[in-house]
Design brief:
Blueprint (H helix, E strand, L loop, with lengths): L1 H55 L1 E12 L3 H10 L8 H4 L3 H6 L2 E5 L20 H9 L4 E3 L9 H13 L5 E3 L5 H5 L2 E5 L2 E9 L21 H14 L2 E7 L10 H13 L3 E5 L7 E5 L5 E5 L4 E3 L9 E12 L4 E15 L8 E4 L5 H6 L2 H4 L5 H9 L11
Parallel strand pairs: 1-2, 1-11, 2-3, 3-4, 6-7, 7-8, 8-10
Antiparallel strand pairs: 1-12, 5-6, 9-10, 12-13, 13-14
Length: about 400
């Protein structure tokens, strides 16, 4: 009896011990499971965040570049007539390409003729254009204005100073190629679009034998000044994602880039250029992609020909609008270009140099070609002539004919 009592008195202790042990094991397992889930969820969250951050670091912008905006007297006289006695109206000259410029995230132009507002308009060989021209260039959507070219000193130091001040006063654009002093010349000039910082460098091979007077503080970059060019590009690369170089070089009316152009292009890329836009020959030259040391790609358009002008031979009336996308991988600091295409442009004016205006090739016609001033010096000028000419210069992979 007493034994039975002792046995029964021990049963609750075993049961309690079992329950406590089982509960402890369960709680331990449960807590371990919670910890595993906690860490699993944390890891998943971090991974998703990292993925989102990585995606956010890949930035893209569409880019459009054109060649020489060369304003002869017939063009500003027609603009004056269109304004009806109230200044100058250049809208009709550009209206056929205005949407292409506006729709690009960033657009670049070489303003071949100086704009010195206090001086009267003038034509070849010493150009000056009305301020209304510059305002129309801004209005249709150009962001980068290069004025480093062989006509930049046509109105002397005072004209260049006025031009610099004029472009500085225009909202939403960035001037490159001419500077009020040496400090400004070496200071990086940038413009930001879609989160991408574009750094600009402008230079010219020649200034038609003209030079700044002794003691002038004004500055510009000459292609022979490789020390300052390299310094400018490297300083710009420190603060910009993409370095865009406008360079006025080569031989007029030659459709083939010179060995000097090719050698300089490779040096510019080596020093940090991502986009090289060439002008001066007044005719198209080839386009190429150069692989950079970091694995990215740079695009070189050796010459985009004339944008607008009153030059009158077939090749000088055929230019190009270069379109491509810039891709920036911020985390890897890698810049590439994609979808590089040149859309041919035709500058049209009738044989009496009337009604000057620009067309995309897709807008042009056989009827217009038959009326063109180009027929005088290039009798074969036609739609077929234009297409064959462009195909002979621009590699097929970069050409947009429709």
């Amino acid at each position: 009896m007493n034994k039975k009592k002792r046995s029964f008195s021990r049963i609750p202790i075993y049961i309690l011990t079992f329950v406590v042990a089982t509960s402890a094991a369960f709680l331990s397992t449960y807590n371990d499971s919670k910890d595993v889930n906690k860490y699993a969820n944390t890891n998943t969250t971090v991974t998703e965040t990292e993925t989102e951050t990585t995606k956010a670091e890949i930035l893209k912008a569409s880019f459009v570049a054109v060649g020489d905006n060369l304003i002869h007297s017939k063009l500003y006289e027609q603009a004056k007539e269109r304004a009806g006695g109230n200044g100058y109206d250049f809208k009709a000259l550009y209206q056929n390409v205005a949407d292409d410029i506006k729709n690009a995230d960033i657009a670049s132009i070489n303003q071949e003729t100086i704009i010195a507002p206090s001086k009267p308009p003038s034509t070849y060989p010493m150009f000056n254009s009305p301020p209304e021209l510059g305002k129309e260039v801004v209005n249709i959507g150009f962001d980068i204005i290069n004025i480093a070219n062989n006509h930049m000193l046509d109105k002397g130091a005072s004209g260049l100073k006025e031009a610099i001040e004029f472009w500085h006063a225009q909202e939403g654009v960035q001037l490159t190629g001419a500077y009020l002093n040496e400090t400004e010349m070496l200071k990086p000039e940038t413009i930001t679009r879609n989160g991408i910082v574009f750094g600009l460098v402008g230079m010219t091979e020649l200034t038609n034998g003209l030079s700044l007077p002794s003691g002038s503080e004004l500055r510009y970059l000459n292609t022979a000044d490789v020390t300052n060019i390299r310094k400018k590009i490297e300083l710009t690369k420190e603060v910009a994602d993409v370095v865009v170089v406008n360079v006025h070089w080569g031989n007029e009316y030659s459709t083939k880039p010179s060995d000097t152009q090719k050698a300089l292009a490779r040096k510019l890329v080596e020093w940090g250029a991502d986009v090289i836009i060439g002008h001066h020959p007044h005719v198209l030259q080839t386009i190429e992609l150069i692989t950079k040391m970091d694995g990215g790609t740079a695009v070189v358009a050796y010459s985009l020909g004339n944008f607008v002008s009153m030059q009158n031979t077939g090749p000088t009336m055929i230019g190009g609008m270069l379109k491509f996308n810039v891709i920036v991988d911020k985390s890897a600091k890698l810049v590439t270009v994609e979808d590089v295409k040149l859309e041919p442009l035709v500058m049209h004016h009738r044989q009496s140099y009337l009604n000057g205006r620009l067309y995309k090739l897709s807008q042009y016609s056989e009827e217009l070609a038959a009326q063109s001033t180009a027929k005088i010096k290039t009798p074969a000028f036609s739609m077929d002539y234009i297409k064959k000419h462009v195909k002979s210069i621009i590699p097929e992979e970069f050409l947009k004919l429709n």
